[in-house]
Amino acid sequence: MTESADIHLTHASQIVREALAEAAKRPHVESFFDPATFTVSHVVRDPQSKACAIIDSVLDYDAASGRTVSASAQSLIDYVKSESLEVQWLLETHAHADHLSAAPFLQKEIGGQLAIGREIIRVQEVFGKIFNAGTEFQRDGSQFDQLFQDGDRFKIGNLDATVLHVPGHTPACLAYVIGDAVFPGDTLFMPDFGTARCDFPGGDARTLYRSIKRLTQLPDEGRMFMCHDYKAPGRDTYAWETTVGAERTGNIHTHDGVSEDEFVAMRTARDATLAMPKLILPSVQVNMRGGQMPPAEENGVQYLKIPVNAL
């Protein structure tokens, strides 16, 4: 970890400690689970105002018909409107491979700046080639309103937030630390389920291990909200909230005592057994565009490509 990264982590830890000590700095988090993709979207609210952010929204997509539906996103909109909230941010933790982002639909209906990590440009470069997206597809992150990098700070109303770059699952993965709440994206799952895969283009198990160890240096009492849950064997219900301390001491893949080499060996072997996510091809080519579909062709229809034998 570099010296500047240490400074950024120290600042994030301070945000968590201050929030733990002062209720006004602890965000209210309302979570919405999408069973079709096992995704959890979060509305993060400032307790002192109507300001909020939405993290990792879902646009429903039926692969057989190619149709999109906005039911999951509408649940977020209904909640925001019922509470008279002001959406300041639409935050993406990374370019998801298992669901389409609903950010453009949400932005049109309830506003907010769309943000993702600056390293999205690496994802755009790799997948722009895989999908043969052409010169009209900009590979500079310009589809997003804000490109965050490690240590960036922002506000949600009166809430302090900071950004931690946590690559490994993808090169562009971010964690958001907002008050005492940590949103690690796909970097971590619930302690009884483990960690994210690292076999996508740009993924790296050793990098993921170091990103996780960075996150688990945050204060143990910090609340941690998952982006997905797959209901680990033996657990009857879905769950997405835990603590930093529970991840540090109890995560089945990276608990205290698991070495980096042990993790890399486990993760590499496990990833070799996993099928590609069912929606990876539509998801990535949409999400690398900030949730927008590819441009319509001369007949006015938008198309998603299925590259053969490319992944």
Order of helices and strands: HEEEEEHEHEHEEEEEHEEHHH
What's the architecture in CATH terms? 4-Layer Sandwich
Largest sheet: 6 strands, mixed
Q: What percent of residues are in strands?
A: 15-25%
Number of helices: 8
CATH class identity: Alpha Beta
Number of strands: 14
The span between the termini is 31 Å
Q: What are the segments in which pLDDT stays under 50 over at least 5 consecutive residues?
A: none
Q: Which geometry do the CA atoms define?
A: globular
Strand order, main sheet: write it out: 1-2-3-6-7-8
Report the CATH superfamily. Ribonuclease Z/Hydroxyacylglutathione hydrolase-like
> Structural class of the secondary elements?
alpha/beta
The count of domains is 1
Q: Cα-atom Rg, whole angstroms?
A: 19 Å
CATH-defined topology = Metallo-beta-lactamase, Chain A
Approximate helicity band: 25-40%
Write the topology of this structure:
Blueprint: H1 3-21, E1 28-34, E2 39-45, E3 51-55, E4 60-62, E5 67-69, H2 71-82, E6 86-91, H3 103-110, E7 113-117, H4 120-130, E8 146-148, E9 153-156, E10 159-165, E11 174-178, E12 181-183, H5 205-215, E13 223-225, E14 241-243, H6 244-250, H7 260-271, H8 280-287
Parallel strand pairs: 3-6, 6-7, 7-8, 12-13
Antiparallel strand pairs: 1-2, 2-3, 4-5, 9-10, 10-11, 11-12, 13-14
